[in-house]
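Structure tokens please, single chain.
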Amino acid sequence: MGIGKKTRSIGKIIEGKTKEMAGKAVGNKSMERRGKAEKVKGKVRHAVEKGKDSFRL
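Here you go.
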């Protein structure tokens, strides 16, 4: 798997964490939940990409 997909998944994790923290800071529960969901989605994608790499070796 290319490094591009891994980097995008890490970007999603960071983006989600940023939204989550911003939501906490301003008291916006909706933004906080969206950030958590995005962070989890990024972590899952990253794990899938790592799994694909391990099967190729």
